[in-house]
Structures are given as structure tokens and as C-alpha cells.
Amino acid sequence: MPKIDIANIPVDTINMYPDPFHQPIKGRERKRLGNAVGLSQFGVNLTTLKPGTWSSQRHWHRNEDEFIYVLQGEIVLREEHGETVLKPGDAAGWKANSGIGHCLINRTNKDAVYIEVGTRSTIDTVVYSDIDMRLERDKTGGRYLRKTSEPYPPRKA
User: In degrees to the nearest 10, what's the CA dihedral of 96, 91, 33, 128?
Assistant: First the structure.
């Protein structure tokens, strides 16, 4: 098994959410560890949330399991029925199609770092619990849609 040279993995800050939903995610940085060794069945990311940053909009996946493990700092897990503070050594996970919308928020003045692991499903629907948006993904890519199925225009910047 090849050792991953984490220091040389590029930082990914890509966030494809349409306006204005991408704003809280600015400051999320991921190193795609799974990609570095060619994993295809599940993804593994080393993720840093800068102060004030969210991991995502609150969401759940129809076809993908998700798991996180906190390494450094403090993050708030926001779910359907409230918030839970997570510290180093804490973990959380969500089974596919659970309907439990979730996101992580760094409300501190220091970076928070965690590992995220998730299924790599070609076909998935991501439901965003608090906003008028869902992501439909298939073999040709992903499309952000309103609940009416009207597509969001691509973000300009």
C-alpha cells in the first residue's frame, strides 16, 4: 500500500453551490486522500474549516453513507433537532437515505480539522434541508435544482 504524501496533495477549495448558497462554505479546504491512491468505492478527505466556515449546507444523501472523525479544534454538528459540539476524538455518521440533514460549522477563532469518509455513488440525490435546492447526480454530472425541478443558473464566480 503506498504511503500518502499528505504535504504534497493539493488543497481543494471547490464549491459548486449556486448563488447565494456557496457563501458560508468559503474557507473549507480539503485534501483528497482517497484520490491520491486511486480509491473508487469511497472517498476520504482531510478537511479544514477556517473560523466561521461551514462544511456544506445542511443536507442528506439518498445513496451515500457519510462519516466524520474530528482531529483538531471544535466544530458544531447541526442536525434536524439541534446542535452538538464535536471535539478531537469525536465522530459522527449518517446512513444513506436517513433523511437526517446535517452540516458542520466552525464557530471558533481557530481552524478545525477532520477526516470525512463517504460512498462514491455515481447516481445520487442530495436533499438540502433548509433551502430550496437539491443536487441530482448521474453518470453525466450533477445539476443543482430548485424543489420545482427548475435548474439554478451556473454561478458566475
Answer: 40
Q: Which residues contact 44 (CB under 8 A, 6 or more apart)?
A: 32, 33, 34, 115, 116, 117
The residues that bridge with 86 in the sheet, in sequence order, are: 75
Instruction: Summarize pLDDT for 51-100 with one digit per residue, the tens.
Output: 999 999 999 999 999 999 999 999 999 999 999 999 999 999 999 999 99
String of DSSP letters for 110-149: S-EEEEEEEE--SSEEEEESSSS-EEEEETTEEEEE-TTS
> Which residue, 62, 126, 125, is CA-closest to 96?
62
Give dist(CA 119, CA 65) in Å, integer.
5
- Per-domain residue ranges of the chain: 22-129
C-alpha cell belonging to residue 56: 456544506
Q: What is the pTM of this model?
A: 0.94
Please give the CATH number for the structural domain made up of 22-129: 2.60.120.10
In angstroms, what CA-CA distances link 17 with 33, 51, 87, 102, 130?
22, 20, 27, 16, 14
